[in-house]
Write a structure and sequence with these properties.
single chain, 208 residues, alpha/beta, Rossmann fold, 12% strand, globular
């Protein structure tokens, strides 16, 4: 069983991944953020660091996929390799932070990798408005993490563009079902909401 939690920056993916992993006694595969050598520089100069950052994320996501494909343990993913390409790299290209040459190079590498990793059984997509995202980013309880501090400087347009990319991607993605939760309306930190989520996703996971 592979469940992925997807969504924009600040939607609460990591918290939900850890909680689902605990509930299902599954392995939590988190995004390569804390030890990422490019993320801090990227937030300070997106044009300079966009390409190496995306290659770093792509290589780590591919490594995760290979590891998962050889494991029988249930896994909860923090984002997917598909989002790296169709949300983040695409948005950087569209916003002129990635050159056409770098973007085509990235896409070639992505297409080579994609057939070698298994798709999730289900994607839980957390969507939220910009004001909700900015509020959550501002109040992250990771003040000791400089990389997280720099998220406060993320331009509003960048977050909105990512939201737009996610809306388009969720309509066209077909490798597995996508279950959407509006975090403007649902607080998954509440036990009742979390239990309702478990009930809602159970039909998508017949092996449980």
């Amino acid at each position: 069983m592979i469940i992925a939690v997807s969504g924009n920056i600040g939607t609460g993916k990591t918290t939900l991944v850890n909680r689902l992993a605990k509930h299902f006694d599954a392995r939590a595969e988190l995004e390569a953020v804390r030890d990422n050598p490019y993320l801090n520089d990227f937030y300070e100069d997106m044009l300079r660091w966009a390409f190496p950052l995306q290659i770093y994320f792509l290589s780590h996501r591919f490594e995760q996929g290979v590891r998962i494909s050889s494991s029988e343990q249930p896994t909860i993913l923090d984002r997917t390799i598909y989002e790296d390409a169709h949300i983040f790299a695409y948005n950087l290209f569209k916003s002129n932070y990635l050159s056409d040459r770098d973007y085509q190079n990235y896409q070639h590498l992505y297409k080579t990798m994609i057939g070698l990793v298994p798709p999730p059984d289900l994607i839980i997509f957390l969507k939220g408005g910009i004001s909700t995202l900015q509020q959550r980013i501002k109040h992250r309880h990771r003040t000791q993490d400089q990389q997280r501090k720099n998220e406060d400087t993320i331009p509003t347009d960048y977050l909105q563009n990512l939201n737009d990319c996610y809306e388009q991607w969720t309509v066209t993605f077909s490798l597995c079902p996508i279950f959407t939760i509006d975090i403007d309306l649902v607080d998954l930190a509440e036990e009742k909401s979390f239990q309702e989520l478990l009930d809602d996703i159970r039909p998508y996971l017949p092996t449980l």
